[in-house]
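Field notebook, page 445. I keep forgetting to write these up properly, so this time I am using the form the group agreed on. The chain and the ligand, glutamic acid, are recorded exactly as supplied. Prediction of the bound pose follows.
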Amino acid sequence: MNVANLMMNLEQRHPGEVEYLQAVKEVLISIEEVYNLHPEFEANKIAERIVEPDRIFTFKVAWVDDKGEIQVNIGYRVQFNNAIGPYKGGLRFHASVTVSTLKFLGFEQTFKNALTTLPLGGGKGGSDFNPRGKSDGEIMRFCQAFMLELWQYIGPQTDVPAGDIGVGAREIGYLYGMYRKLARENTGVLTGKSMGFGGSLIRPEATGFGAVYFVKRMLENQGISMEGKTISVSGFGNVAWGAALKAVEFGAKVVTISGPDGFIYDPEGLDAEKIEYMLDLRASNNDVVEPFAERFPSATFTKGAKPWSVKVDIAMPCAIQNELNGDDAKMLIDNGAICIAEVSNMGCTPEAIDALIEARVMYGPGKAVNAGGVATSGLEMTQNAMKLNWTAEEVDAKLHQIMMSIHDACVEYGTEAGGYINYMKGANIAGFIKVAKSMVEQGVV
Ligand code: GLU
């Protein structure tokens, strides 16, 4: 494999798909060495095949807003790779959604899902629909119109969507209601469902919990305890919420959250009440965190900035791709941070990753750190198939065990000669090998 040539061809074929090309390049560079030790990969053109999605569905979503005006959005489902299981991955409703963002997310998902140890392929979907300021009725009508198109492409054995940015339990409920009406069946076709109709306990918390289990393991692997460590978190949605809950339970101090309007710094750290308040902020649908500082006097709000200037031990970006850049990484390193763990998908830019690895700071890539969300979706699928519910303790124990096994796979494939653990390399190689071997064994399809 020649990464430069492959990337050149891909750039020509998909011009301007910046996020997608960024994600592919990172993986190809990580796996190049191992790839070239496997002549069967080259003979089967695995690299050329694995970087292209199997197919992409694009559809118009027309709906009527509360004023009676007709709105038109674009919906997508990217079915990236199903070599090891049905396509699996979330739906993102966000103004920034394009084919490029969903292709990068579907590509990442393929390797992430392989890391979970569960039989899940990779997919992603969504829409450029912006939920900010929309009423409940508008959200419902949009979800119904979206599912009216999507339902024909998905199924419990084919493609199982879930939530992502802008899609939580409420949206999954509306999407599920329409699916069941059209398909005339009750199946585990979506994950992240409410408990009343097949959801799994711990799924709402899973991405954040899993990320903290992973970080704790990274630290303990170096003989460092999580207790008393300060953590900056970005975002204020479901993922940031779960991460804050578990980090505080382990004795760490979470001192920031953020939104599109700016960030909150609370030197006293978040307690149960403040963490709960994040959910109220989200439910208000205004997409702002400023009210947090009005509600809690110990907190200050900084407009239009990200939380990476705050001196902390650990940073956990939980918002969106490329939210932590090279300058942010340098600032965190200069301030003595010991660990940066991406909880958002591709939260760090390539410059940030380079800076962290060069400084030998612990860096956990999103596809490993945040895999607890989709892993628990996999556990929801299992429970649906068995038509029973596990207890919260059972699900949490399985989630914990999966995160430990992902961590250990990263260590196995990512430990460098000097002893530094390159988790990015480890995660990319471990995920890739599993999918690539399956593709070789299944022939050219
Ligand atoms: N959107 C989440 C992710 O990025 C969860 C996907 C799922 O549960 O299928 O992994």
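OBSERVATIONS:
- The chain is about 50% helix and 15% strand.
- The CA atoms of residues 92 and 126 lie 4 Å apart.
FOLLOW-UP: compare against the apo run.
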